[in-house]
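Give me the fold.
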Amino acid sequence: MPDIVLATINARYVHAALGLRYLAANLGDLRPRAHIAEFVLGQRSGDIAENLLALQPRIVGLGVYIWNAEESAKVVALIKRIAPDVMVVVGGPEVSYETEDQRICRDADYVITGWGDVTFAQLCRDLLDGNMPEQKMLSGAQPPLAHIALPYDEYTDEDIARRFLYVEASRGCPFKCEFCLSALDKTAWPFDLGAFIVELGKLYARGARHFRFVDRTFNLKIAASLRILEFFLQRMDGDLFLHFELIPDHLPASLKQAITRFPAGSLHFEVGIQTWNPEVQSRISRKQDNAQAEANIRWLRECSNALIHVDLIAGLPGEDLASFGQGFDRLYALKPHEIQVGVLKRLRGTPIARHTGAHGMRYNPDPPYNVLATDCIGFADMQRISRFARYWDLVGNSGRFHRTLPLLLADTPFERFMHFTDWLFSATGKTHEFAFEKLCDHLHRYLAHERGVESAAADAALLGDYEASGARGRLAFMASGVRPQRAPASTGRSRMRQARHVNA
């Protein structure tokens, strides 16, 4: 049985926890005495505690994040009541700030704030040797990156075959956007590029083809970006899929040239616009050349094969519904494949808290700490935006409604889709659990009866989208006995939602 169990609760099975693997890789001589145990949201806290205690560990290290904070607190409470002699150590961004208010921090034996790579290993040595640190709160040491063992050998063959592999060429961020924990970083620190690429090569040789870079600013240092892209270009095959986060206004010609060499469906770029409003950008310390960012997104969409996912945040201090809607319309006109509409969250420790009083920011006291109302957007409208975001993900981001969206949005996308949002919620009272066929029927009813779209046009658009999806069945608005032709079954990367956007 392992003396040390490293555990966390992932949002989904396909997300392999990079943080646990860093901790394991840096245990040194203790590594053979450690075991990684990953769980998934939806599992009962009692079952998780049972599985952990069945391993009979002396130490449980738990990674705590915004998505698993509540369940993690329940697990820790259960462990300490059932097996109080088991030492519980918690760490991660959710327990690195404002710890005095958190039940999980009170229940745990030790809390490591900040970087845990080397501090967790030292704490384990102390505990296993019987040297109990007097301090419960331990500030994680931040060593030079060269002193941190890279974690990629910790990915198992099952991880490589069935899960997303997270990698990072750098840590930190030089920008100070106040809604982000990276605003607390002094800069971005690069890992040794040669050593990192060696690790990529080992993963690739083992069969890895799906790489998700967690770097906040992949295109900060263009020379490093080009070297990484060239590594993958030399190994391009039909299964390779790469995800990067891009700075929107920094896309020099050399990087553009490399991007154009990737085939359709192999590159996925997440681009953070967050807001187009210059006053709001200044208020939250976000530096962004909007004209250049706009030009770069347009270029990516028109001149590359990359899939473009762009983030917008509603509820930022001083931004009203009209300004947010104008920003959505400006972004939609650039035709990114996906627009991720998010509602501001007050992550623990982030500087966004300084605007709470001046802008009437009222936040959910429980995770995910989303803003409930501001002096510019009331609670009712914030609820509407939250529903807008959910429905937009089902319709706009799904890649299933290429023919229907133009009928739905016309020349005022935000206004039109908000109207659809209000109608759909009024008609159904729910934001989840829409079967695809039922969603098509709701769209048809709305277009034909609420927007006055000719029934033939609505029929043709929705039937065409339904057939293209490969779904099988009969939509309620179709003539009796008429069934759509099923599209050929897809394989490989085309099973992913992003693949529906390819060549759209």
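The two ends are 52 Å apart (CA to CA).
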